[in-house]
Amino acid sequence: MQIPAEFSYERATSIDHALELLKSHGPETLLLAGGHSLLPMMKLRLARPECLIDINDLHELDFISSDGDRLRIGALTRHRALAESEEVARHFPIITDAERVIADPVVRNRGTIGGSLCQADPAEDLSTVCGTLRAEVVIRGPDGERTIPMVELHRGPYETTVAHGEILTEIRLPIRPGAGSAYEKVERRVGDWAIAAAGAAVWLDDGRIADAGVGLTAVGLDRGTATRAEEALRGRAPGDDVFAEAARLAAEDCDPVSDQRGPADYKRHLAGELVTRALRRATARALGQESTT
């Protein structure tokens, strides 16, 4: 039986208390929210924190609200709450799409969006979704808050810009007119990590794509965002030829590895196909031709 290395445990009662605990303990201190990624890593001794700070009582980080031009999501919001939110589905159906294919009900009941983003797993779905939607994340530390674009959160696999003594507290998503979004995923079995997945968001204006976001999961795309594909879409009338060009550029820019989930050329092919599908559905939603629920 695998068991974690010895560690101490603290339970935070507020954000300020959590920050105080982080300050009083050493740099090998980790935060515990849903725990579905951290605890297995601890059992395998891939993570050996000296102290765990449980933040599950920080109810001020569990919310979904809008303030006109943006949707705000607290870092402790559970996957299930995101999947069931009508407001999320109305503004950002890509999130609902992704939540339906994340793991299983046990994980979705306890796992949090903040934990998913801070895990920085290259095969994690919500990081791609938030990058595609041009999200910002709010990070709070002893010197106050700072806000950064989602694409700057991850330094690399399993590494973020959240420093010791800081907590990711909120995700902010811009609400813009003419929007549609979608997420497409291929997995070996239900709830598995992606072989490949793609997210797309389009913002239409006068029949053309005023702006676009394209992201890929699990295929080695730098920062998860296909910038050349996005540029190829801007200012164009939506259509299969335009989508195919963007998909080709996205596939060219990814760098998948061959592993037990499939060879690299297969994953690259999937990436292109999934970008095309996601762009079609995102555009249909922007035009009101497909339900977002």
Report what the structure shows.
The protein has 293 residues and is of the alpha+beta class. The protein folds into three domains: 8-52, Uridine Diphospho-n-acetylenolpyruvylglucosamine Reductase, domain 2; 65-173, 2-Layer Sandwich (Uridine Diphospho-n-acetylenolpyruvylglucosamine Reductase, domain 3), CATH 3.30.465; 192-286, 2-Layer Sandwich (Enolase-like, domain 1), CATH 3.30.390. 34% of the residues lie in helices and 26% in strands. The chain has a five-stranded antiparallel β-sheet. Helix 5 runs antiparallel to helix 8 (125-132). The mean pLDDT is 94.
What's a concise summary of this model?
With 293 residues, the protein is of the alpha+beta class.
Which helices and strands, and how do they pair?
Blueprint: E1 8-11, H1 15-24, E2 29-32, H2 38-43, E3 51-54, E4 64-66, E5 70-74, H3 79-84, H4 86-91, H5 93-100, H6 105-110, H7 113-119, H8 125-132, E6 136-141, E7 144-149, E8 154-156, E9 159-160, E10 167-174, E11 179-187, E12 194-205, E13 208-217, H9 227-233, H10 240-253, H11 264-286
Parallel strand pairs: 1-3, 2-3
Antiparallel strand pairs: 4-5, 5-10, 6-7, 6-10, 8-9, 11-12, 12-13
